[in-house]
Amino acid sequence: MxxxxxxxxxxxxxxxxxxxxxxxxxxxxxFFKHVIVFVPKAVPxxxxxxxxxxxxxxxxxxxxxxxRQASRFRNPETPALADKVGGLDFAHIKYEDQLKFKADILxxxxxxxxxxxxxxxxxxxxxxxxxQEKYRNKAQxxxxxxxxxxxxxxxxxxxxxxxxxxxxxxxxDLTMSAMRKIVEIIKDLEIPxxxxxxxxxxxxxxxxxxxxxxxxxxxxxxxxxxxxxxEHQLIERIQKEIPEVSSISQxxxxxxxxxxxxxxxxxxxxxxYLQEDINGYIFNFSPRAFLQLNSLQxxxxxxxxxxxxxxxxxxxxxxxxxxxGTIGITMSETVKHIYGIEIIPEAIEDxxxxxKLNEVENADYYVGSTDKIxxxxxxxxxxxxxxxxxxxxxxxEGSMITTLNRNPVDKLVxxxxxxxxxxxxxxxxxxxxxxxxxxxVDMFPQTxxxxxxxxxxxx
Length: 459
What we know:
The chain is of the alpha/beta class. 25% of the residues lie in helices and 31% in strands. Helix 2 crosses helix 10 and helix 3 packs across helix 4.
């Protein structure tokens, strides 16, 4: 590597660059005098003029200054918003090629961490999304008063600059039209909206979740104080003007930075839950409960989990990181018993309610971290023989992997939303489990995110 080059270059310098491959974060990768260069929104086979944005001892960050020759993978109909807001980081790539690159991102992650025999892994072609646009069933819209004007939408990529949105290619139409109507009502009622400069105002975010099956909306207002001025007039207007809204809640988060949600959520009006259908089962979701953002593709994802597990009536299934119980409940008729574990108490309450709603009697749920509760179940003599893990982006806790390896089960299915932590976890899991295949699934079209279903069996 020619590290002298990184010493010679400075921010703003430009040079020609051919993009060779996709990186694990979806950026384009090229090489300038043997030094690796990461360029967002660049695609393999692009020939560009690259402008340096950051210089590091061993690599460079750049941006596209000019495209000299566009790659055959480029989408000629890229939406204008792709350069303005996040969530459209792959919109410049043709959809069929997005699928190929998502499998490449998975390969890149495996190449980085090198789990045992990874070169021989069977990586299946990425399963396409049922819908490539208007698929997102939930949005968190920051709302702010900026220079006397109310803006509501999404942040500009990599900034805290709020872009006022009337449309979003990946968001469902009903959600977008409801958001705009709510903003107009807020303006009419002169409800105090968060002003980032003055640190004043009450309302900071509008969260809307949409049920595809029942055509209903769950609206949550995130406020900076428990007091919600003109709350009753707001509810009356929403009831009258947006009949699809079935639930209105308030979440209190006094922090301007950090997590979106505060600890306290209260129902202001309507249904406690939003309902959705997944593979013929009905599920209740409270405002903070996790639901896959792509409702139509969730059916397909769970079918793939089912295929990987091949459940039988002899199976005692551990549904780890179970959320509101969706995966386990959809398998309840094909297994002997389910043990669900989730760290969020409200989610476990929802899971118990969902089991009851679907007349599932062979499921037990526990609140706590999976790495603590699972060993306790084993001590109690519960002989789990099949496991589905669906951890957050951070992957499995080290102690959970230790328990899985010390007590290997016949069948293990890992549902991953982060190829990097998956590859890292497979390094240790591969000690006791054989990777049968990895099935990438596109849950987030127009983004580099890739979900993966991994089938593992005991060695």
